[in-house]
Amino acid sequence: MGTVPELTAVHLPPAVRAAIEASPRVIVPSSRDELYRLSLGPAGGPVHEVAYDVAGPDGTTSVVEATVTRCRNGIAVNYPEDYMRRRDPDCMRIADDLPTDKPRYADVYGEQFAPTKAATLEWLGEQDLVVVPFKAGGPTFGYPSVALVPVNAAFFALALVDLQGWVTFDELVEQHGEFAPRSILYVAPPFRHTAFAGRQVVVHDRTPDLHEVFAYNLYPGPSAKKGVFSVLLDIGEAEGWITAHASAVRVTTPYDNDTVVMHEGASGGGKSEMCQEFRRQDDGRILLGTNVVTNEPYVITLAESSALAPVTDDMTLCHSSLQDGDGRLVIADAEAGWFVRVDNLRSYGEDTNFERACIHPTKPLVFFNIQGVPDATVLPWEHTLDSTGKPCPNPRVVIDRSMIRGVVSEPAHVDVRTFGVRMPACTREKPTYGIMGVTHFVPPALAWVWRLIAPRGDKNPSIGETKSEAKVIKHGGMVSEGVGSYWPFATGTKVAAANLLLAQLVEASRTRYVLTPNQHIGAYQVGFAAEWMTREYLARRGGGRVRRDQLTPARCALFGYTMREMKLDGQLVRPTWLAPEMQSQVGVEAYDEGARIISSFFKAELEQYLTDDLDPLGRAIIELVLKDASIEDYEALTPMHI
């Protein structure tokens, strides 16, 4: 191929430049429209098979990794294997010698990554390539980066630039002058079969100045999405700031008061749902929950709910340059587009604004794990069926944030940080840890502890579990997703991440911290209604302000405080939702068993942080957990802003 003019001002590693120059054809798209056309394959559709020749013991076989269907409102990408439709939680491998707590490539595979890296670049040099620039972290605060993708998998590059924002090499040079990419993403699907026994594998190779991500699969979750998240966490750890695994929304009450709520939690913990409206029944009432024992529904009437303006969806940038000394955390979106899970859309009319954006987009979208009929409209509730005959639990759409109604595009001060936990049902007959009340106020110390653990359970739809994790969850246990729930994507060490997170929580002294459950409250199946009610309640209290006399310690000290009384639009929330031990189907004995499960799990998980590198305040907080301290003890270390 020779020299690529667009790359003359880009300082690439010699082996990477050699691969590009060896490629038979290199395309640097001049527009998103060009990249979209490339995604449809050489024939332009209607169905493009993304296939590769894979050498095996019985000869070379053509393996179809994905199909791309041309539809009226975008492309529908589907994978023949169920396994490829969700992110494998054990796909990260670290190839370098920098500090890490993640599995190192050499330890897992018994050899260094260098030969596989060289083979990957050699293979890429034999392919027609699409080379796209992007800014890891979004157009405003992002870091110049480059992706090398086989042309027949151009849909992957399209999803990447839709998530990170369209930019050209000329624009990057205009902004930065001659530059070396801060990260490079390589896509080489056949190695999944030839080197990794069919597994999703994403290898990270870091130096102080360059973070390389080698994606050996075509589902973008662990690479184009979370791989870029890894890059930002790596940069942030070096520079002293965090990219939170969170969504955020500006809530405007019927009285025109604004409150910004930032919601965190493990995968499936309600981040996407925080930006969604209440689900109303045909008569306008809101079903908050249904008792799993008696089937009794719990409904309320809310004449007018608050208006929602999304701020972030999943990756929330807490860059040091944003902070202004206000005492509240300042955030911005780390993405230009959102990778929205639509498993809770099952029929027309459940989220009309979002459905309208998907069905009548201003530009064609990229859909994953959703049925696509050539030249018909992709409907976000028609999820691809797995081999079991059940709908895939992880249907996705990549949508430009500008297409979301009312989206906030400037940095925002966070008034309240909520943390969501998927809770199983808890009853006298089957005690579990599903004992969290609808809304709990906690001091920064406990907010930190919950984020260190980031428990995941009760049918998480976003990722696949390992066999051991699935067994634990099936039998009523918790699995930790780790620091801030962004630990699955971090390449460094847990203690370094824990120290950064603790400093952030303590420094944001005017931001309030709240816990809220989803799926169940005791014996009530609630979905995400408790989260939505908490959001509404906090906004109507003006930034979540409460008086001290309105709070009472929860029976389990790890839950901090619950409300003595909670009133929404003149209606008292059932006291049994504030304190689930009061539910007749739960009771004190089952509640205390649930508290024991949580406490034992937290103690077991927190031991690993007690190293010499841990912040002394963090050590003091963990020691309180280990000795079953009271809520007052936590507040003595980190006062709670109310």
From TrEMBL:
SUPFAM superfamilies in the cross-refs: PEP carboxykinase-like (SSF53795)
Domain of life: Bacteria
InterPro entries, sorted: DUF4914
Protein name, as recorded: DUF4914 domain-containing protein
Pfam families: DUF4914
